[in-house]
Amino acid sequence: MVKKLIFFILLTGAPAWAGGLPEEYKPKPAPPARPPEEEKMPRLEKPGAPVPGAALYDVRVVFAVGGVAAADIPAATAKLLPILERRAGGLARRYDVQRGPGEGRITVKLKGCPDPARALEILAAPGLLEFQALAGRDEFVKVIGDAGWPTDRLLPYESPNVVLVAAADRDGLQDALRGALEPGQRALWTRQLESEQQGSVYKAALATGDGMAVTGIIDAAAVTDPVTGEPAVNFDLDDRDGTIFSGLTGRHLGEALGVVFDDELFYTPRVKEQTFRRGAITGDLDEGRARDIALLLSSGSLPATLTPVEYYVDGESRPIPKPSK
User: Fold this and answer.
1) Helix 73-89, helix 116-124: angle, nearest 10
2) Which end of the chain is more exposed for a tag (fewer CB within 10 A), N or C?
3) Left, alpha or beta for 306 (phi > 0: left; psi -120 to 50: alpha)?
4) Are residues 276 and 240 part of one domain?
5) Which residues contact 145 (CB under 8 A, 6 or more apart)?
């Protein structure tokens, strides 16, 4: 069976104006206190925590800043520097983040890094958490059929919002959907999964266009779920994003939301009640991946793209590795 993912939201109470964000509202800077039972969840070690006897490396990587207009690169670079400093601090014993060489470049140095390739991937990751309202499965199947893709090739799967696609069919369906989706609609995909019955598969869902990109996270931590004993990621939204999320869940009571991180669909929970601020992601996470996601969430999402153009390990130039899938 395809391994199920679990996502849950811990209620903190929705304010009376949860349906919208008043203009005069200003976020409170102080983070909320965690309840006693949440404090008992043991936090996992940071990605950069050295393992006794493991090899450590010195890494230097130069990134090109992109994804924004040329005139906006200096401002984007200024915003990127503190985000990269926070990420680098979780990846190595010592680090240095500087502008240059040249305009639109940032150099990151890591000393005592246990996994250079993984560190490179984390530094450049968008780090974006999203919640997206989903269309029903029947509506999605109709869109697939209208796009000219044979719906009888969809694999049997009982879900009100998700279709199951063989790994060999993913690219073909993705291509067919590109010209068939209406403005605001978006196909969401999981990572490749393994099924005992169908082999390598993907899950896909259709986002309707009503959703939110999370830009205000007060705290995120990799923990051990006290119920399942498996790795998890807890996070707290700031008041602004918590209010927007409260409005989103209020509009979609009884419906499904897609939990999306860096364009990967994690889970499609049904909204049972209007919720605010606090949540967790669990399931299909090993300790390393939970730590990485927590580090990315707590560091903040990137305001521009970062493309590695130079990569050195212990002073030796290395080919830039391809991102893992």
Assistant:
1) 140
2) C
3) beta
4) yes
5) 151
Q: Span 236-253, mean pLDDT?
A: 93
Tally the domains of the chain: 2
Is 212 buried (19+), middle (13-18) or exposed (0-12) by CB count in 10 A?
middle
Query: Beta-carbon neighbour count of residue 63 at 10 Å?
Result: 24
Whether residue 281 contacts residue 293, with contact meaning beta carbons closer than 8 Å, is answered with: yes
Q: What is the DSSP string of 230-296?
A: SEEEEEEE-HHHHHHHHHHHHHTTTSBEEEEETTEEEE--B--S---SEEEEESS--HHHHHHHHHH
pLDDT in tens, 180-189: 999 999 999 9
| Same domain, yes or no: 288 and 179 | yes
CA 297 to chain centre: 8
In a shared domain, residues 297 and 313: no
- Segment holding 138, helix H or strand E: helix 137-146
DSSP string of 77-130? HHHHHHHHHHHHHTT-SEEEEEE-SSTTEEEEEEEEES-HHHHHHHHH----EE
Res 227 pLDDT > 90: no
Full domain range(s) for residue 78: 56-125+302-325
Question: For residue 131, how many C-alpha atoms fall within 13 Å in the half-sphere facing its CB?
Answer: 29
| Edge-to-edge strand ranges of the sheet holding 217-224 | 6-10, 278-282, 231-237, 217-224
Whether 133 and 162 share a structural domain: yes
Based on the fold, state whether residues 105 and 154 are members of the same structural domain.
Answer: no
Q: What is the pTM of this model?
A: 0.77
Q: Which amino acid does the sequence have at 149?
A: W
Q: Please check whether residues 202 and 276 belong to one and the same domain.
A: yes
Give the dihedral of Cα atoms 287, 289, 212, 303; nearest 10 deg.
Answer: 130
